[in-house]
Amino acid sequence: MATGVVLDPDRNAANHVDASIDQARRAYDAGVRQVWIAQQFDHDAIGLAGHVGAAVPGLGVGTFVVPINPRHPLIVASQAQTAQAATHGNFSLGLGLGAHAPEAKAFGTDYAHTIGRLRDHLTVLRSILDTGAVDFAGDQLTARPDWPVTVAGGSPIPVYVAAMGPQALRVTGELADGTLPYLAGPRTLSEFIVPTITAAAEAAGRPVPKVVAAVPVLVTDDVTAGRDAAAEVLEFYAGIPSYAKVIAREGVDSVVDLAAVGTVADVSRQLRRYRDAGATDVVLSPLVRTGLAALEPVWEVAAGL
Questions:
Q1: Contact 118, 168 (CB under 8 A)
Q2: What element of type H or E holds 104?
Q3: Using alpha carbons only, what angle is made at residue 12 by residues 9 and 17, rounded to the nearest 5 degrees?
Q4: Tell me, which fold does domain 2-304 have in CATH?
Q5: φ, ψ for residue 185, nearest 5 deg
Q6: Could you report the per-residue pLDDT of 202-211, keeping only the tens digit for each?
Q7: CA distances to 31, 219, 258, 283 from 305, in Å
Q8: How far is CA 128 from CA 76, 95, 121, in A?
Q9: Helix, strand, coil % (nearest 5) of the chain?
Q10: Helices 166-175 and 114-131 meet at what angle, rounded to 10?
Q11: Whole-structure pTM value
């Protein structure tokens, strides 16, 4: 089972990129072989992943995740191929469908027809990455450039989508290489996500997709305090409809029940349940992301799985 960790450097650092590289190098030295970077409103995740991967040879880097809105797939393809060339083949592109409320507030636009936009976005990416060219006019997007769309050294690129609903999983199975679910527990993986995306990929004649499950993690000897801290961090997700549905499907009492909290041994045991449920990869998302005292035990778990 491949494992990775979410990378998120201290925002108080003098240089964000330098701090990211330093954290990635420390994680690599601790035995971590894959880091994932979330898109934020400050840094650019694809660009940052390219810098980190170039600075720490042998370390796999990926985005977890870059929302497709308001990004056109031609731009994403250009960025992703540049990052892949910079990392010499160690970059993975993780995309997300986005969240309506933050997007409306930030961009002043409500991106409707989410599934149709996802299909068009992936169709353009698939064409560029598989054929080196694109000529597409869909319901939501058009891509008809009169210039090169490939970057030397920029392919192949694994493309994943943070798909958890039935329609998104079917589109992802048809056009991407796997899914990146967050807060989807073992029951949801085994009974719904794995069979749904696998059936879609098989029907489309594509390889068996990866299921890269991201799990919030806090390594601590004080489980009660750890769960309280997890509740504070994860409360935001319980209010997002797509996550609320996943939490309900898992049948847990609270979103906190989907966090792996406890000692190194406890957390490792909890994470192995995801492998048993069909996850091909597991990503540890630290609930406390600053300070070596919080991060080093998480890296220890990742390196030992």
A1: yes
A2: helix 100-107
A3: 45
A4: TIM Barrel (3.20.20)
A5: -75, 180
A6: 999 999 999 9
A7: 10, 14, 19, 11
A8: 11, 16, 11
A9: 50, 15, 35
A10: 10
A11: 0.95
